[in-house]
Structures are given as structure tokens and as C-alpha cells.
Design brief:
The structure is a single chain. The chain is mainly α. The chain folds into two domains: 33 residues; 127 residues. Strand 2 and strand 3 form a beta hairpin. The longest helix is centred in the first third of the chain and has 27 residues. The mean pLDDT is 82.
Amino acid sequence: MWGLRRAVIAVALACALVSCATEPKGPSPEELARQAALEASRAEELARQERERLAAIPRFGADDMRCLALAIYWEGKSDGRESQAGVAHVVLNRLKDPRFPKTICAVVHEGGDGRRGKCQFSWWCDGKSDEPTNAAQWQEAQRIARTEARTGAADPTNGALYFHQRNLSPSPSNNRQRTATLGDHVFYR
């Protein structure tokens, strides 16, 4: 009787060993691929959420945001949103260039030391009040400033550092590269 039990146990063990050896161990390649795709999708979604979170963090203080909104307002208030965004990006692009000051207000006020006509932005030293006069256009300029100052905002000017209104001709000595025309403004690098 014990011999028969030993034989049954031996056969059961042999069957268990054989079936384990012939069955796949772990998930199939297809399942692994699905899991990898799911993990990549989750990682991509987390990265997107992090980019959005970081983009929502203000990069600049209230004074700089006011200076940026004033530049947008006075340089582009009569033009469309895309042109106004272009004005904002010229100011922001200058921050990255070592030839220009390192704060928004310093960029906007550059050359405004009392010498009329030497300002980078003519409205700054034209002798007139810089207080906005149209509430709706001022609110729009502030909204555009907040939007364009976000990290990762697309630059419609392709890196422009200069601009002028389309109805004005650039200086004959201007050998700058045109990067965009947005509304009534032409942008240069």
C-alpha cells in the first residue's frame, strides 16, 4: 500500500514538474507590451500635469507684469491678440539676450533717461501719461501678459528682439532678419 502511495505521489510530482516546465513563467510578451504602454501613458500624463502646474506658477513679480502689460497695451492695443502676444515676446526674448537688461521693467524702460527718441519703446519717453485710458483694452493687455509670461508659452515671433509697425519702414541700416509679421507689426531678430 505504501508503495502505491509513493508511486502516486511520484507521478503527481512528475506531472507537476512537467506542467510547470511547459507553461510560460510570468506574463506573455503581449501582456508585457500592454503594461509598458500603459506605464508610458501614465508617465506622459504625469509629465503633462507637471508642465501645466509649473506653467501656472508666476515667473515674474507684480511690477514686471505691469510693465509687460503696459508695453502690450501701448504698443499693440489697436492690433489683434497675436500681434500683442508678439510684443510681449519681444520683451521676454530680450530678457534672454545678454545685450539687454535682465528685468521686464528694465527692458521696457531702457533708454528712458530723459533723452526723447532714445527709448526702446516710444510710449515710455513721449512725455505723455502712461496710465491706460481704455479699461477693456487694459484688461486684455494684462491677460495677454499673464498668458505669455508662462513657462512654455509659444513665441509667435520666432525669437524676435525688435519690431515696428507695418506702416513704418525700418532704418536703411537695419540688416536684421525678419522673423514674423503679425497684424500691423513686423518682427525681427
